[in-house]
Structures are given as C-alpha cells and as structure tokens.
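Morning. Coffee machine broken again, so started the prediction first thing and wrote up yesterday's gels while waiting. Chain of 231 residues, entered below exactly as on the submission form.
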Amino acid sequence: MFSRSARIYDAIYASIRDYPREAAELDRLIQDQRPGARRLLDVACGTGAHLAHLTGYEVEGLDLDPEMLAVARERLPDVPFHEGDMADFDLGKRFDAVVCMFSSIGYVRTEERLRSALASMARHLEPGGVLVVEPWLSPEVWLDRHVAAVFVDEPELKIARMNVAQREGNVSMFEFEYLVGTPDGIERFSEPHELGLFTVDQYLAAFRAAGLEADHDPEGPMGRGLYIASS
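Came back before lunch.
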C-alpha cells in the first residue's frame, strides 16, 4: 500500500486532512456516546496523525504496513502500536472507543472481509463502547477514469503524485505515480491500491452482523460519510 511513500505521506496529506479538527470532532462524537471514554484504538492508524491530537485518551494503534508504523512510532514513541490485518486481529484487550478513519476500511476489498473487519473491531469494544468508521466511496458516486493529482512544494521537498481511477466490478483501482525531488536527487516510483466500493446498506448490514447498530452521517470529515455505532 503506502510502504514506498510512508516517509512522505504526511507531507502529501497535510493539505488534504485537518487532523486537529477531525480529532476534536472524534472526541465530541465519542464523548456524546460514551461520556468519560478514555481508552481508544485507531485501526489502520497509518502514521499516527489522528492519535497525535487525541491527547485526552490512552491510545493504541493498529496497521498492516510496517513502514507506516515506523513513522508512527517515531512520532509517538510512548504509544503501543501493533502490526496486523484489520479483518482479523486480536489484541487481547478492549477499548472504550475504536476508530477507523480516512476510508481505510475500503482496503478490505470484499463484503466478506468488511464484515470480518467490523466484527474484529466490535470484539475490541467494552460494553457500551463506540465504533467510528469513515467509509470509502460508494459505487454510485465513483467516477471512473477520474484523473487526480496532488503537489507538494516545500524548500527541500517537491512531490507530484498522479493517478487515474479505474473500476473492476465493485473494486476501485488506481496506481499512484510519484515523482519526488529532494537535495539527494529525483525518485520515481508507483504504488497500486485497490479498495472495495460498498453501499450504505452493505455497511449497515455489516455493522448489524457484528452486533452493532450504526448511525450514518452522509457527509463526514470530507464528504465520504461517517458511521457511528455503539455496542
């Protein structure tokens, strides 16, 4: 996934995500559902950018990508981070809140793995705990062959990342093509990504199968929606 780009990931998304604002909104949602919640797990935590702003919680993170976890551990050396697959993990502990942000849930690709992932997250909730999931795009809003680009222009770091969106069945596919310039030279590389396109009904059914009732906010942090569920 983001193994090749882990070290530049935060530079790319600095202009796309407002982590302090999103962390504050997560805190509000969690405390509304479970006042006094303190223990939180971030599934698909990436570089730990959300966790860095959830300072009122005892936090832990889980991610499949060891390179992303290496960045997260440098950022938050006192936080426990775990390498694992969101569709099948067991940390042997429970949390007041579990979150899965930035559409990472789409990487499960299939409805079967979607159900498995939400069941794994639900198993890590304390009774009355809160699960917050930001979905990937749904099939009806997917724009096939959409061309996207992100540019970073810092004094000693220049990045151009481009991709063309494609679809095969209910799986979205794109190859991020990178051009990265630093004082050490210019590097070119690519990273393939595949994310499942699930409907609202499929998400809600997967939450119910995990023993959770979820509310759906169609807007969410960046227009992709948000699911808030309680155990």
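DSSP finds five helices and twelve strands in the chain. Going to sketch it on the whiteboard this afternoon.
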